[in-house]
Amino acid sequence: MRTQVAIIGAGPAGLMLGRLLDLAGIDNVILERKSANYVLGRIRAGVLEQGSVDLMTRAQVDRRLQAEGLVHHGTDLSFDGDRLRIDFTDLVGRHVMVYGQTEVTRDLMDARQGQTIYEAEDVSLHDLDGKPWVNWVKDGVTHRLDCDYVAGCDGYHGVSRASVPQSALTTFERVYPFGWLGVLVDKPPVAHELIYAHHERGFALCSQRSMIRSRYYVQVPTDEKVENWSDDRFWDELRRRLNPETAEALETGPSIEKSIAPLRSFVAEPLRFGALFLAGDAAHIVPPTGAKGLNLAMSDVAMLADAFIEFYGERSSVGVELYSARALSRIWKAERFSWWMTSLLHTFPENGPFGRRIQRAEFDYLAGSRVAQQSLAENYTGLPS
Ligand code: FAD
Ligand code: DHB
After folding, report:
1. CATH code for the domain in which residue 234 is found
2. Position in ligand 2 atom list of the atom nearest CA 291
3. What is the ipTM of this complex?
4. CATH number at residue 31
5. FAD-binding domain: which residues (predicted)?
6. Which stretches of 242-317 are DSSP H helices?
7. How far apart are the C-alpha atoms of 221 and 316, rounded to whole Å?
8. Which residues line ligand 2 (CB under 6 A)?
9. How much is the pLDDT for 349?
């Protein structure tokens, strides 16, 4: 088999890249280790920046997003019960859209024209400095795909980054001593907008998927086990971290999903090794506090698709050569913002009383400074690429 671009991974990065290449008439094949249903079953991000919404429009997959997505003009921060609304529209003239990653993935899967091979096991990459090819095993049979380029869109634990010699890669990492325990519930959201709450017992987030489905998170230690959290324990802990009126208004019910995600900041540099390009979580991880993971994956593949379109359309390698530097410039700004939001809102026991006072001062500064609020709003709604 032969294709122009072999895409590893059918998460949002791989599927969006495949869609943009399909629309440009560039042949591509996606190889995904799991089944389509497994990919759709993963509950992850929920907030789309304007740039990601625009990309869905460019990819002609925004019909449901426009009909069902919820426009959010602001968000709430809460610190020990004191509330501060960040009004994105007033501050920077932009907004975000609440639309789940599962829905983005479903829309892209439904629109897919090129070939996607699900349950492709043991994917391996070869001859990345020469004439690249990819191997995989399906139903016990080994297959081979020759290509011009490989796009590594296979997430943090994927084979693409692992195929690069360690000496060719510099990695930067911060692992936080906590994770997020998330619960999905079929109840209306507690508030119209999201609430990011700092409390001495730990961070909490009130998010949503629709007018009748809510997503809530609480900070838990890294080694916490989801089995230790009954629904009742989760709701009690969440209420304790919210201000009394919000806690009172919270509608609870049986969880339809419950999982723990570790928090990590990670960047690999560069993003290109010969014919291999890394994009999305394969290249970088942000802690989820700034809602950037999915959005960064989208902006990476928009740049990568444009580079391939330039290469095949104009026979110019400029975009391909510049992809790594261009994408990394945006990635590091999102890394900074995600680290900053995480530092402001979580409890870091090792930072002691001094650290908490600094967090309080940061919150008070935000509350009193329109300029500081503008900076938050500018980053949260998405920096230009
Ligand atoms: P992924 O979505 O990870 O997709 C990669 C795909 O590659 C997967 O389908 C995987 O099965 C496949 N794959 C892996 N290895 C191979 C292989 N060897 N061969 C073939 N295929 C392979 N972001 C937020 O903004 N907010 C959140 O609340 C949030 N929650 C998260 C919770 C969890 C548990 C995780 C892991 C991430 C979360 N994120 C969140 C981050 C966000 O979901 C990711 O940034 C986003 O999924 C990145 O998309 P991607 O396509 O790059 O990677
Ligand atoms: C959600 C996740 C986030 O990381 C975030 O910052 C906002 C919302 C969510 O899953 O809804």
Report:
1. 3.30.9.10
2. 6
3. 0.96
4. 3.50.50.60
5. 2-338
6. 244-249, 293-314
7. 49
8. 45-47, 194, 207, 215, 288-289, 291
9. 87
